[in-house]
UniProtKB/TrEMBL annotation:
<dbReference type="GO" id="GO:0032259">
    <property type="term" value="P:methylation"/>
</dbReference>
<dbReference type="Pfam" id="PF08241">
    <property type="entry name" value="Methyltransf_11"/>
</dbReference>
<keyword id="KW-0489">Methyltransferase</keyword>
<dbReference type="GO" id="GO:0008757">
    <property type="term" value="F:S-adenosylmethionine-dependent methyltransferase activity"/>
</dbReference>
<feature type="domain" description="Methyltransferase type 11">
    <location>
        <begin position="49"/>
        <end position="149"/>
    </location>
</feature>
<dbReference type="InterPro" id="IPR029063">
    <property type="entry name" value="SAM-dependent_MTases_sf"/>
</dbReference>
<protein>
    <recommendedName>
        <fullName>Methyltransferase type 11 domain-containing protein</fullName>
    </recommendedName>
</protein>
<dbReference type="InterPro" id="IPR013216">
    <property type="entry name" value="Methyltransf_11"/>
</dbReference>
<dbReference type="InterPro" id="IPR051052">
    <property type="entry name" value="Diverse_substrate_MTase"/>
</dbReference>
<comment type="similarity">
    <text>Belongs to the methyltransferase superfamily.</text>
</comment>
<keyword id="KW-0808">Transferase</keyword>
Length: 275
């Protein structure tokens, strides 16, 4: 099996960090999840592979939307972090769902041509070799199958405090391949992608989530590149984030007496259909 998992991802999402990640990271907008469920061009129950499934945040959002049009035959979750797999198994028990070790370019538990749909939520920017990953996607997909990539990201253009928060935490990224940098788009120009997939389709949703100072601060601390910092530096990040929120440039209150305010987000979905 490939062991090419970025060091910051391996440590920042390692054992001991996963409970916080699962508790404070946002789920996914229902409209985006419904959109993904309707990608396969078949009415038969779906075989789905979710690579980089983490603690099961997207998996649970997917399972929570029950409709007659899209039925599940089996969902095979793939996750290289043992700590995340442990939390996944605790939080995502379902008769049709399993989880196994694997990476973007090596999914040995899935046979050739098995999947109607591959889903990668909040993870593909960590891929170390886009060409190898696209080859593996093509191997496990059925003819006419598809890959759906989905990401959430704070909408820094919507409020001053969000931009300030992002500026504060981004200084610790350590040149990691974060989603916001768009390096993952290189996948769509690899030889393997061009040989096996059609041009990607792109759709975006803008919305806001309810948040408090605690949620926003802990969410910042759950970032992989913050989780790997020494304790004193993490404490300073938390203090600075709380100060930014207290200042509240552009903040929109939901319930000021309860300390609840809008946390603006965007969700991006990219769809790649197999030729």
């Amino acid at each position: 099996m490939s062991t090419d998992v970025h060091t910051v991802a391996r440590v920042g999402f390692g054992t001991g960090t996963n409970e916080l990640y699962d508790r404070v990271r946002p789920s996914y907008p229902r409209d985006a999840v419904r959109y993904i469920k309707k990608i396969p061009e078949t009415t038969a129950p779906l075989n789905i592979v979710e690579i980089g499934a983490g603690t099961g945040l997207f998996t649970r959002a997917f399972l929570a939307i029950d409709d007659d049009e899209t039925r599940l035959a089996s969902l095979k979750a793939i996750e290289p972090s043992a700590g995340m797999r442990e939390v996944f198994e605790q939080k995502t028990a379902h008769d049709l769902v399993t989880i196994a070790d694997g990476t973007f370019d090596n999914v040995p538990s899935v046979e050739n041509g098995w999947a109607d749909l591959i889903i990668i939520a909040q993870a593909f920017h960590w891929c170390p070799d886009f060409g190898k990953a696209c080859t593996e996607f093509a191997r496990i997909l059925k003819p006419g199958g598809a890959v759906a990539f989905i990401w959430n990201l704070e909408d820094r253009g919507h409020a001053g405090w969000v931009a300030q928060l992002r500026d504060r935490i981004e200084r610790h990224e350590q040149d990691t391949p974060q989603f916001r940098l768009g390096l993952w788009r290189q996948a769509f120009a690899t030889q393997s992608y061009l040989e096996n997939f059609k041009a990607p389709e792109e759709k975006e949703w803008a919305y806001h989530l309810d948040a408090s100072e605690r949620i926003a601060t802990e969410r910042a601390l759950s970032k992989s590149y913050i989780a790997v910092l020494p304790p004193d530096e993490k404490t300073k990040v938390a203090q600075d984030v709380k100060a930014i929120i207290a200042k509240g440039d552009g903040r929109v209150w939901i319930n000021e007496s309860e300390g609840l305010f809008e946390y603006p987000y965007k969700t991006l979905v990219m769809v790649s259909r197999k030729k």
